[in-house]
Each structure stands twice: as C-alpha cells, then as structure tokens.
Sequence to fold (461 residues):
Amino acid sequence: MHLHILGACGTFMGGVALLARALGHRVTGSDAHVYPPMSSQLEAAGIGLFDGYEADHLEPAPDLVVVGNAMKRGIPVVEAMLDRGLPYVSGPQWLREHLLGGRWVLAVAGTHGKTTTASMLAWVLEAAGLDPGFLIGGVPIDFGQSARLGSSPFFVVEADEYDTAFFDKRSKFVHYGPRTLILNNLEFDHADIFDDLAMIQRQFHHLVRTVPGRGLIIHPSSDAALAEVLAMGCWTPCETFGDGGDWSARLSVPDGSCFRVHWRDRELGEVQWDQTGRHNVRNALAVLAAAHHAGVSPEVGIEALSRFRGVRRRMERRGEVAGVTLYDDFAHHPTAIALTLDGLRRRVGPQRIVAILEPRSNTMRLGVHNRDLGAALAAADRVHLYAPADLGWDGAAVLAGLDDRLSVADQVETIIARVVAERRDGDQVLIMSNGGFQGIHERLLAALRDSASALDATRPS
Fold:
C-alpha cells in the first residue's frame, strides 16, 4: 500500500511514517519544515519527501493519505485530497487501527516531560529484554530513532493532548487505548486550541475513561489539576509517585544525578545517571511504576535507568568550545524552563548560565505565559531573548524584571555575536526552543571556535 503522510517531518507524524515503512508500506510525505533529526531518519528509511504542500504531491494517487494535525483547510494538498475523494485518516487513528490493536500500550501523558519519560520507559523495557515498540516525540539517544515496531506485545507511546486533525478535534491520546497510563502533570498550555485548563482536563478525563479496569494509572502524589480529573471518575487502580507517594526518592546529591528509590517503606536501590533535575527524578519514579506493571522488577529498572543516556534536544550537550559548554533543550513553557534551569544550576553551581530563548510555540507567541516567564528565567545569569518583528509582544517590557541580565534581539546573528563577545571561561549556554532555531546551535559553536582561533593567532609565540 502507498501511504502519503501530510506533515511528515513533525515529531509524531514522522514516527508514523517510520512505522508504516517498517510494516512494509511504500511511504512518501510532504512538509514545509524539514530539519534534523526527523528529516535524517526519514531519508535513511527510504521515505521520499516533498517540500511544501502542493496538490501534485498526490500524483499518482496514494492508497491512503495520513493527515497531520498541522494541516488546515485551504492548503492545496488538503483541498486536492478532498476534491479527488481520496481516502484519508488521522495519524492517531491510523496508529490505533493498524498497529496498537491487541498490544499492551503504555502511554505517557502530561504537560511536561512526556518525551523524556516515554524514552526512559522504552529503555527500561528494552533492558529487561522485552523488545518494545515505541513512538516518541523525540529521538532517544539509546535507540537513535523515534519509532520502531518492536517484536513484543508492549508498545510505548508519547500521548499528546493536542488535537488530532482538522476533521477530529479530540486530543490525540484518546485513540491509543492504554493499559498502563502515566499522567506526569497538568497545566494550562496550547492556548491556540484550548480556552482554559478545564477544557484540557475534560480531554484528560476522556483518556482516563479508556483505561481498562485491569490496567493501571500512575500519577503524582500532589497535582491539583490531575486530582480534579480523577475526581470526575476513575475505574482503574492507581499508583502515585513523588513525596508521600507509593514510589518516592531520596536525593543523594542536590542535582538529582544520584537518588535512592523507595516503594512505600522499602528501599529498592540507587540510580546514578547523567540526568539532572528533580523533575527527572519524578519521571524516573513514574517509569519504574509503569515498567513494574508490565512485569519488570524495580531492580532491573533501576539498573537500566543508571545507563539511560537521555534524549536529543532534552538538555542535550552539543559541545564545548573555548571553555564554553552548550546545551540544547526543548523547554517552551515557564514551568519546563524553570525546572531545566534549576537542574543545571544544581549541577554547575556558581558557574555562569547563559540562557537563549526562542518563544516559538503558539502559546508562547500568544503571550499567554508572559506573567510567569521572567520568574522562570530568574536562575540564569544572562538571558538572550529572540524577538522577531512578528512576535506580538514586547520582550523588553515583559522581562523587565531581569534588568541588565536581559538582551533582546530580532536577529539570530545578533545573539551569536553578543554571546561570543561576552564569553567567559566556564559559561554554560542553554538554548531553549521547540524548533530548529535557524541552526543556532552549530552556528554558535562555530563562532566560538573562530573567536578562539583568532585569539590564539594574536598571542605571541
């Protein structure tokens, strides 16, 4: 069968494309935003990509068009699909109908931490010899790919609350039918499709309704928004994680890179890993609970987490040049920004943290989180805000509380030049964006190398 994927380079739809190819289908795709790591995965799998969304991308006609949720009426390829009467389906519906039926689905939902937690869970199941399938909205370093079929009944899916398609406005996750469900946390987000937190809570309750009575729901011991969701009705056993929960942790070091795991009153072992932040400790506890539900002993899970290498673009260390260490992170919500900076601060101590932020998500560009943004960035010693002309709000005014720590620029080149000019030995540069950010990561590393080389050339021999 020939499948054509609309929005093929998105993190979710790209995973759908890879899974369809692994099932033996001929797969092509269209997208207007092509950048690694997803584009590299698709090309390596032999998936042909078209740039843009033109009607002739559907010639010859595919057997099925799989439509991503970024597609809207009026886009030429969408109009051609409808005019020609081609069969079409959303990505989540295709996944449920062609892959998830009959499998033990372990879903990870929540406002923050879905990608990292799903990656941890897939890795723990892998370490236990279960060969899980997975579809994750990022690339786990331990696997090198964001999706695979797996040979066992177990399938891990990152369960996003964003809407399914232009013709199906339910959240994606209602399609997955999980037996094991992690609910990481819940805050207001996606202001472009949700009016308030209550609308999101209603979608989360739709998800709760799909978990069987013999399944398991894993949630934080204290999250008021999720407690309200579960109070709407819950027909599934629950386990909790975090302080006072069924699964808890005692930090051995402040940055969370070493902690002891407890199941109620019993100590199970110690995780020593390369991850940082109390949020990742909580993610790990949820993973141990979910893996245990699937039959993995906590001891095996703890050992596997100690070898977990992380996820690309989630506090990924991209390089060190001239005494400057550069990280790439996906944080695009004040809570995630604050947690990421807190974890880095606890690791590097007094070393200077330089934060570079691109407000790229729809919610950030709408200014919904502006009231909380300054406080979220407060742990940084220097903040560079990318504020293009079409941002829609005044970055200098919104972040005025940062005083002289703030620099606002409407060009990436300006940010790079300022970071290089202000460079100090030991700087920890954290770049935060949920997009490609015009390749700033490699461009900044190259500029730092050039600056260091020029400085060396001026020194007397």
